[in-house]
Amino acid sequence: MQHGFHFSVQDKSGDIALFQLNEGGEMLMHRGDVDSDLRVMANAPLQQDHRAYVKTFDMNDSSALPGSISSADRNVRGLYATANTNFDNADAQWIDVRGKMKAMFDFGNKVPQDLIDPSNDESYTTWGNVRVQLKLR
């Protein structure tokens, strides 16, 4: 199901609330944190449908991930990338961390602006929001 109105908020502790308007005007709130599946969000379908779709993939096997530009497929890849990218190297230089963040985002989510999804004739604005906590010595 497509929906229009949705937004998320995150507090400084990393708790996240996603508010979405469901069929019939029902407002639903999903709660999680930066370690939950709410760390990656894509426009459509609804969050509960994203969750059901993600369950159809082996999230430990990158070769089995979907490859289309659809919002649902980008959500799956984003969840995989964020779960399998390690930022714990305390000796890493900023340029290395920045490069790793960009590669992780591009793998999961980036879509060229002029590319049309053949399943619905839509193009997608690519928004990025990455939160990384670095441990400083």
Strand-helix topology:
Elements: E1 6-10, E2 15-21, E3 27-33, H1 47-54, H2 71-83, H3 94-108
Helix pairs in contact: 2-3
Gyration radius, in Å = 16 Å
Q: How much β-strand is present in the residues?
A: 5-15%
Uncertain segments: none
Tally the structural domains. Answer: 1
Give the overall form.
Answer: globular
Strand order of the largest sheet: 1-2-3
Order of SSEs: EEEHHH
Output the number of helix runs.
3
How does the helix and strand content classify structurally? Answer: alpha+beta
Q: What about the largest sheet?
A: 3 strands, antiparallel
Number of strands: 3
| Mean pLDDT across residues | 80
**Approximate helicity band:** 25-40%
How far do the termini sit from each other?
47 Å
Protein name: Linear amide C-N hydrolase
Organism: Alginatibacterium sediminis
Describe the structure.
The mean pLDDT is 80. The chain has three helices and three strands. The chain is 26% helix and 14% strand. 18% of the residues are buried. It is globular, with a radius of gyration of 16 Å. The longest helix has 15 residues, at 94-108. A hairpin with a 4-residue loop joins β1 (6-10) and β2 (15-21). A three-stranded antiparallel β-sheet has the order 1-2-3, with no helix packed on it. It has one domain. α2 (71-83) runs antiparallel to α3. It is of the alpha+beta class and 137 residues long. This is Linear amide C-N hydrolase. It comes from Alginatibacterium sediminis.
